Amino acid sequence: MEVSSPACMWFTSQTQSNIFSNYHIAWLNSNQEANSDERKSNKTALRGCLDVNCQLGEGAQGSIYLMTYGESEKFALKVCRKKTSLKCARNYSIQNSFKAIEILNEVKILDSLNHPFIIEFFEKFETENYNSFLLEFCQGGDLLPYMHPLIYTVYHLQKVNKQERKFSESSVKFYVSCLALALDYIHSKGFVYRDLKPENVLLDKNGYPKICDFGLSIPQSDLNFKTCRRRCGIKEYFSQKLSNEKFMEKRDDLSHECIEFISQLLSKDRNNRLGKNGIKDFIVHPWLEDIDFKELEHQNSEPPYPIEGVSPSETHFFCEEYTQKMLDHQLVQEIS
Protein backbone atom coordinates (compact mmCIF):
# COMPACT_ATOMS: atom_id res chain seq x y z
CA MET A 1 0.00 0.00 0.00
CA GLU A 2 2.96 2.32 0.39
CA VAL A 3 3.27 4.86 -2.41
CA SER A 4 4.91 8.25 -2.67
CA SER A 5 3.13 11.42 -1.63
CA PRO A 6 0.24 12.36 -3.92
CA ALA A 7 0.71 14.91 -6.65
CA CYS A 8 -1.38 17.89 -7.61
CA MET A 9 -2.82 18.70 -11.05
CA TRP A 10 -1.96 22.37 -11.21
CA PHE A 11 0.48 23.33 -13.96
CA THR A 12 2.94 26.06 -14.83
CA SER A 13 4.50 26.63 -18.25
CA GLN A 14 7.73 25.13 -16.91
CA THR A 15 6.17 21.89 -15.66
CA GLN A 16 3.67 21.42 -18.48
CA SER A 17 6.25 20.02 -20.89
CA ASN A 18 7.22 17.46 -18.26
CA ILE A 19 3.64 16.36 -17.64
CA PHE A 20 2.65 16.24 -21.30
CA SER A 21 5.84 14.50 -22.36
CA ASN A 22 5.93 12.50 -25.56
CA TYR A 23 6.21 9.34 -23.47
CA HIS A 24 3.14 10.13 -21.38
CA ILE A 25 0.94 11.04 -24.36
CA ALA A 26 2.12 7.93 -26.21
CA TRP A 27 1.20 5.80 -23.19
CA LEU A 28 -2.24 7.38 -22.93
CA ASN A 29 -2.99 6.87 -26.63
CA SER A 30 -1.53 3.37 -26.92
CA ASN A 31 -3.65 0.53 -28.21
CA GLN A 32 -6.52 0.05 -25.77
CA GLU A 33 -7.09 -3.46 -27.10
CA ALA A 34 -4.14 -4.69 -25.01
CA ASN A 35 -6.26 -4.98 -21.87
CA SER A 36 -5.69 -7.07 -18.78
CA ASP A 37 -6.63 -10.74 -19.20
CA GLU A 38 -8.88 -10.27 -16.18
CA ARG A 39 -11.11 -7.77 -17.93
CA LYS A 40 -14.42 -9.17 -19.08
CA SER A 41 -14.59 -9.56 -22.86
CA ASN A 42 -18.28 -10.31 -23.38
CA LYS A 43 -19.44 -6.69 -23.68
CA THR A 44 -21.23 -5.67 -26.86
CA ALA A 45 -21.47 -2.23 -28.47
CA LEU A 46 -24.32 -0.36 -26.83
CA ARG A 47 -24.25 2.99 -28.61
CA GLY A 48 -27.55 3.70 -30.30
CA CYS A 49 -29.40 1.37 -27.93
CA LEU A 50 -29.36 3.62 -24.86
CA ASP A 51 -32.02 6.00 -23.53
CA VAL A 52 -31.17 8.98 -21.32
CA ASN A 53 -33.17 8.95 -18.06
CA CYS A 54 -31.80 11.89 -16.10
CA GLN A 55 -28.65 13.60 -14.90
CA LEU A 56 -27.02 12.06 -11.82
CA GLY A 57 -24.27 14.53 -11.06
CA GLU A 58 -21.67 16.96 -12.32
CA GLY A 59 -17.92 17.28 -11.88
CA ALA A 60 -14.87 19.10 -13.18
CA GLN A 61 -14.55 16.81 -16.19
CA GLY A 62 -18.20 16.64 -17.22
CA SER A 63 -21.65 15.38 -16.30
CA ILE A 64 -22.97 11.92 -15.38
CA TYR A 65 -26.25 10.59 -16.80
CA LEU A 66 -28.39 7.58 -15.98
CA MET A 67 -28.90 5.47 -19.10
CA THR A 68 -31.28 2.57 -19.78
CA TYR A 69 -30.55 -0.31 -22.12
CA GLY A 70 -33.56 -2.37 -23.12
CA GLU A 71 -36.32 -2.47 -20.54
CA SER A 72 -34.38 -2.41 -17.29
CA GLU A 73 -30.57 -2.57 -17.55
CA LYS A 74 -28.99 0.59 -16.14
CA PHE A 75 -25.66 2.28 -16.83
CA ALA A 76 -23.96 5.56 -15.98
CA LEU A 77 -22.58 7.66 -18.84
CA LYS A 78 -19.84 10.20 -18.18
CA VAL A 79 -20.09 12.94 -20.80
CA CYS A 80 -17.25 15.40 -21.50
CA ARG A 81 -17.26 18.18 -24.06
CA LYS A 82 -14.56 17.71 -26.68
CA LYS A 83 -13.10 21.14 -26.06
CA THR A 84 -11.94 19.81 -22.68
CA SER A 85 -11.08 16.38 -23.98
CA LEU A 86 -8.71 14.50 -26.27
CA LYS A 87 -8.01 17.21 -28.84
CA CYS A 88 -6.75 19.64 -26.19
CA ALA A 89 -4.14 17.17 -24.94
CA ARG A 90 -2.91 16.36 -28.42
CA ASN A 91 -2.57 20.05 -29.29
CA TYR A 92 -0.84 20.80 -25.96
CA SER A 93 -3.35 23.55 -25.31
CA ILE A 94 -2.68 25.12 -21.90
CA GLN A 95 -6.34 26.06 -21.43
CA ASN A 96 -8.34 22.98 -20.38
CA SER A 97 -5.28 20.72 -20.61
CA PHE A 98 -5.81 19.70 -16.98
CA LYS A 99 -9.19 18.17 -17.77
CA ALA A 100 -7.96 16.67 -21.03
CA ILE A 101 -5.19 14.66 -19.43
CA GLU A 102 -7.54 13.48 -16.67
CA ILE A 103 -10.04 12.16 -19.22
CA LEU A 104 -7.31 10.35 -21.15
CA ASN A 105 -5.99 8.88 -17.91
CA GLU A 106 -9.36 7.66 -16.73
CA VAL A 107 -10.31 5.87 -19.95
CA LYS A 108 -6.92 4.20 -20.29
CA ILE A 109 -6.65 3.07 -16.68
CA LEU A 110 -10.25 1.93 -16.19
CA ASP A 111 -9.96 -0.14 -19.36
CA SER A 112 -7.11 -2.04 -17.69
CA LEU A 113 -8.82 -2.84 -14.38
CA ASN A 114 -11.31 -5.46 -13.24
CA HIS A 115 -12.00 -5.69 -9.52
CA PRO A 116 -15.19 -6.04 -7.43
CA PHE A 117 -14.46 -2.76 -5.61
CA ILE A 118 -13.62 -0.67 -8.68
CA ILE A 119 -16.29 0.76 -10.96
CA GLU A 120 -16.57 -1.21 -14.19
CA PHE A 121 -15.83 0.44 -17.54
CA PHE A 122 -17.68 -0.83 -20.63
CA GLU A 123 -16.93 1.30 -23.68
CA LYS A 124 -16.10 4.78 -24.98
CA PHE A 125 -18.34 6.78 -27.31
CA GLU A 126 -17.34 9.70 -29.51
CA THR A 127 -19.79 12.11 -31.14
CA GLU A 128 -19.38 15.47 -32.86
CA ASN A 129 -19.27 17.48 -29.63
CA TYR A 130 -18.70 14.94 -26.85
CA ASN A 131 -16.44 12.17 -25.65
CA SER A 132 -18.33 9.83 -23.33
CA PHE A 133 -17.67 6.58 -21.54
CA LEU A 134 -20.11 4.04 -20.27
CA LEU A 135 -19.74 2.88 -16.67
CA GLU A 136 -21.44 0.64 -14.17
CA PHE A 137 -24.38 2.36 -12.47
CA CYS A 138 -24.02 2.41 -8.68
CA GLN A 139 -27.49 2.92 -7.27
CA GLY A 140 -26.36 3.94 -3.78
CA GLY A 141 -24.61 7.12 -4.91
CA ASP A 142 -21.39 8.29 -3.30
CA LEU A 143 -20.26 7.65 0.27
CA LEU A 144 -20.23 11.26 1.52
CA PRO A 145 -23.97 11.61 2.32
CA TYR A 146 -23.81 8.53 4.53
CA MET A 147 -21.14 10.23 6.65
CA HIS A 148 -22.51 13.74 7.09
CA PRO A 149 -25.85 14.56 8.82
CA LEU A 150 -26.45 17.83 6.92
CA ILE A 151 -25.93 16.23 3.54
CA TYR A 152 -28.42 13.52 4.49
CA THR A 153 -31.18 16.13 4.49
CA VAL A 154 -30.21 17.40 1.05
CA TYR A 155 -30.11 13.91 -0.43
CA HIS A 156 -33.32 12.79 1.32
CA LEU A 157 -31.80 9.61 2.71
CA GLN A 158 -34.70 9.11 5.09
CA LYS A 159 -34.64 5.32 4.84
CA VAL A 160 -31.40 4.96 6.78
CA ASN A 161 -31.73 5.04 10.56
CA LYS A 162 -31.10 8.57 11.85
CA GLN A 163 -28.92 7.14 14.61
CA GLU A 164 -26.60 5.76 11.92
CA ARG A 165 -25.75 9.13 10.42
CA LYS A 166 -22.15 8.63 11.37
CA PHE A 167 -20.35 5.38 10.81
CA SER A 168 -19.89 2.87 13.58
CA GLU A 169 -16.42 1.35 13.90
CA SER A 170 -17.66 -1.86 12.34
CA SER A 171 -18.91 0.08 9.30
CA VAL A 172 -15.58 1.87 8.97
CA LYS A 173 -13.76 -1.46 9.15
CA PHE A 174 -15.87 -2.78 6.29
CA TYR A 175 -15.22 0.16 3.97
CA VAL A 176 -11.53 0.49 4.89
CA SER A 177 -10.97 -3.21 4.18
CA CYS A 178 -12.77 -3.05 0.83
CA LEU A 179 -10.82 0.03 -0.24
CA ALA A 180 -7.52 -1.49 0.91
CA LEU A 181 -8.19 -4.50 -1.34
CA ALA A 182 -9.04 -2.22 -4.27
CA LEU A 183 -5.95 -0.04 -3.81
CA ASP A 184 -3.70 -3.07 -3.47
CA TYR A 185 -5.08 -4.36 -6.78
CA ILE A 186 -4.55 -0.97 -8.47
CA HIS A 187 -0.92 -0.92 -7.29
CA SER A 188 -0.41 -4.49 -8.50
CA LYS A 189 -1.48 -3.34 -11.97
CA GLY A 190 1.15 -0.61 -11.98
CA PHE A 191 -1.00 2.44 -11.23
CA VAL A 192 -1.18 4.95 -8.39
CA TYR A 193 -4.62 6.23 -7.34
CA ARG A 194 -4.27 9.80 -6.04
CA ASP A 195 -7.77 11.09 -5.33
CA LEU A 196 -9.30 8.91 -2.62
CA LYS A 197 -12.19 10.68 -0.87
CA PRO A 198 -15.82 9.83 0.01
CA GLU A 199 -17.14 11.52 -3.14
CA ASN A 200 -15.09 9.10 -5.25
CA VAL A 201 -16.43 5.98 -3.56
CA LEU A 202 -19.79 4.78 -4.87
CA LEU A 203 -22.11 2.14 -3.42
CA ASP A 204 -23.58 -0.50 -5.71
CA LYS A 205 -27.06 -1.96 -5.31
CA ASN A 206 -25.79 -4.42 -2.69
CA GLY A 207 -24.01 -1.73 -0.66
CA TYR A 208 -20.44 -2.62 -1.66
CA PRO A 209 -18.07 0.31 -2.34
CA LYS A 210 -16.62 1.01 -5.79
CA ILE A 211 -13.71 3.39 -6.37
CA CYS A 212 -14.33 5.75 -9.29
CA ASP A 213 -12.76 8.82 -10.94
CA PHE A 214 -9.27 7.85 -12.06
CA GLY A 215 -8.44 11.20 -13.67
CA LEU A 216 -5.59 11.99 -11.27
CA SER A 217 -4.18 8.46 -11.33
CA ILE A 218 -0.87 7.81 -13.05
CA PRO A 219 1.26 4.78 -13.94
CA GLN A 220 3.94 4.03 -11.35
CA SER A 221 6.54 4.48 -14.09
CA ASP A 222 5.63 8.20 -14.17
CA LEU A 223 6.46 8.70 -10.49
CA ASN A 224 9.40 11.05 -10.06
CA PHE A 225 10.51 13.85 -7.75
CA LYS A 226 8.30 16.46 -9.44
CA THR A 227 5.11 14.39 -9.58
CA CYS A 228 5.60 13.23 -5.99
CA ARG A 229 6.02 16.78 -4.70
CA ARG A 230 2.95 18.10 -6.50
CA ARG A 231 -0.27 18.10 -4.50
CA CYS A 232 -3.45 16.37 -5.68
CA GLY A 233 -7.05 16.90 -4.70
CA ILE A 234 -8.35 19.36 -2.11
CA LYS A 235 -6.94 20.43 1.25
CA GLU A 236 -9.56 18.63 3.36
CA TYR A 237 -8.18 15.28 2.21
CA PHE A 238 -4.45 16.01 2.37
CA SER A 239 -2.53 13.62 4.58
CA GLN A 240 -0.91 14.84 7.79
CA LYS A 241 2.42 14.62 5.98
CA LEU A 242 1.31 17.35 3.57
CA SER A 243 -0.97 19.51 5.71
CA ASN A 244 1.16 19.53 8.89
CA GLU A 245 -2.05 19.68 10.90
CA LYS A 246 -2.92 17.54 13.89
CA PHE A 247 -5.09 14.83 12.39
CA MET A 248 -7.30 14.18 15.39
CA GLU A 249 -7.90 15.18 18.97
CA LYS A 250 -8.09 12.65 21.76
CA ARG A 251 -11.17 10.53 21.12
CA ASP A 252 -13.03 8.50 23.72
CA ASP A 253 -15.51 7.06 21.22
CA LEU A 254 -12.88 5.05 19.32
CA SER A 255 -11.17 1.85 20.38
CA HIS A 256 -7.46 1.83 21.17
CA GLU A 257 -6.84 -0.39 18.12
CA CYS A 258 -8.67 2.06 15.86
CA ILE A 259 -6.66 5.05 17.10
CA GLU A 260 -3.46 3.06 16.65
CA PHE A 261 -4.53 2.13 13.11
CA ILE A 262 -5.13 5.78 12.15
CA SER A 263 -1.86 6.92 13.75
CA GLN A 264 0.13 4.28 11.88
CA LEU A 265 -1.64 5.05 8.62
CA LEU A 266 -0.68 8.74 8.87
CA SER A 267 2.86 8.24 10.17
CA LYS A 268 5.35 10.69 8.64
CA ASP A 269 8.02 8.00 8.79
CA ARG A 270 7.45 5.82 5.74
CA ASN A 271 9.39 2.99 7.38
CA ASN A 272 6.77 2.82 10.15
CA ARG A 273 3.74 3.77 8.06
CA LEU A 274 0.92 1.26 7.81
CA GLY A 275 0.89 -0.13 4.27
CA LYS A 276 4.62 -0.22 3.64
CA ASN A 277 4.29 -4.00 3.20
CA GLY A 278 1.14 -3.77 1.11
CA ILE A 279 -2.20 -5.33 1.97
CA LYS A 280 -0.73 -7.75 4.51
CA ASP A 281 -0.18 -4.84 6.93
CA PHE A 282 -3.96 -4.45 6.99
CA ILE A 283 -4.75 -8.16 7.17
CA VAL A 284 -2.60 -8.70 10.28
CA HIS A 285 -3.49 -5.45 12.07
CA PRO A 286 -5.34 -6.04 15.41
CA TRP A 287 -8.09 -3.58 14.49
CA LEU A 288 -9.03 -5.65 11.42
CA GLU A 289 -8.48 -9.10 12.91
CA ASP A 290 -12.19 -9.95 12.64
CA ILE A 291 -12.30 -9.18 8.89
CA ASP A 292 -12.13 -12.16 6.52
CA PHE A 293 -10.50 -10.50 3.51
CA LYS A 294 -11.07 -13.47 1.19
CA GLU A 295 -14.77 -13.61 1.97
CA LEU A 296 -14.97 -9.84 1.65
CA GLU A 297 -13.36 -9.82 -1.80
CA HIS A 298 -15.84 -12.48 -2.92
CA GLN A 299 -18.61 -10.22 -1.59
CA ASN A 300 -19.80 -12.75 0.95
CA SER A 301 -19.87 -10.22 3.81
CA GLU A 302 -22.88 -8.16 4.85
CA PRO A 303 -22.48 -4.45 3.91
CA PRO A 304 -23.49 -1.84 6.52
CA TYR A 305 -25.99 -0.18 4.15
CA PRO A 306 -27.66 -2.52 1.64
CA ILE A 307 -29.26 -0.38 -1.06
CA GLU A 308 -31.57 -2.60 -3.10
CA GLY A 309 -35.02 -2.82 -1.56
CA VAL A 310 -34.40 0.31 0.54
CA SER A 311 -34.69 2.97 -2.16
CA PRO A 312 -38.08 3.58 -3.83
CA SER A 313 -36.38 4.66 -7.08
CA GLU A 314 -33.04 4.35 -8.86
CA THR A 315 -32.20 7.99 -8.17
CA HIS A 316 -33.27 8.05 -4.51
CA PHE A 317 -29.67 8.41 -3.31
CA PHE A 318 -28.77 11.20 -5.74
CA CYS A 319 -29.28 14.94 -5.31
CA GLU A 320 -32.55 16.28 -6.76
CA GLU A 321 -30.67 19.36 -7.96
CA TYR A 322 -29.40 17.12 -10.76
CA THR A 323 -32.04 14.41 -11.13
CA GLN A 324 -34.82 17.01 -11.64
CA LYS A 325 -32.72 19.13 -14.01
CA MET A 326 -34.03 19.71 -17.54
CA LEU A 327 -32.01 17.72 -20.06
CA ASP A 328 -30.21 19.42 -22.95
CA HIS A 329 -32.03 18.27 -26.10
CA GLN A 330 -28.95 18.46 -28.34
CA LEU A 331 -26.88 16.46 -25.87
CA VAL A 332 -29.58 13.80 -25.56
CA GLN A 333 -29.73 13.42 -29.33
CA GLU A 334 -25.96 12.98 -29.58
CA ILE A 335 -25.34 10.53 -26.75
CA SER A 336 -28.39 8.28 -27.02
Would you kindly provide a brief summary of this structure?
The protein contains 14 helices and nine strands.
What does this molecule look like?
With 336 residues, the protein is α+β, with helices and mostly antiparallel strands. It has one domain (13-335): Transferase(Phosphotransferase) domain 1 (Transferase(Phosphotransferase), domain 1), CATH 1.10.510.10. It has 14 helices and nine strands. It has helices spanning 13-19, 22-28, 86-90, 97-110, 144-147, 149-155, 169-188, 225-229, 240-243, 256-265, 280-283, 293-297, 320-323, 329-335, and strands at 50-58, 63-69, 73-81, 121-126, 130-136, 191-192, 201-203, 209-211, 218-219. The strands form three sheets. A five-stranded antiparallel sheet has the order 1-2-3-5-4, sandwiched between helices. The longest helix has 20 residues, at 169-188. It is globular.
Helix content: 25-40%
CATH homologous superfamily placement: Transferase(Phosphotransferase) domain 1
Radius of gyration: 20 Å
CATH architectural arrangement: Orthogonal Bundle
* Proportion of residues in extended strands: 5-15%
* Spatial strand sequence of the major β-sheet: 1-2-3-5-4
Low-pLDDT residue spans: 1-44, 91-95, 152-164
Average pLDDT figure: 76
Order of helices and strands: HHEEEHHEEHHHEEEEHHHHHHH
CATH class: Mainly Alpha
* Count of strand segments: 9
* CATH domain topology: Transferase(Phosphotransferase), domain 1
User: How many domains is the backbone divided into?
Assistant: 1
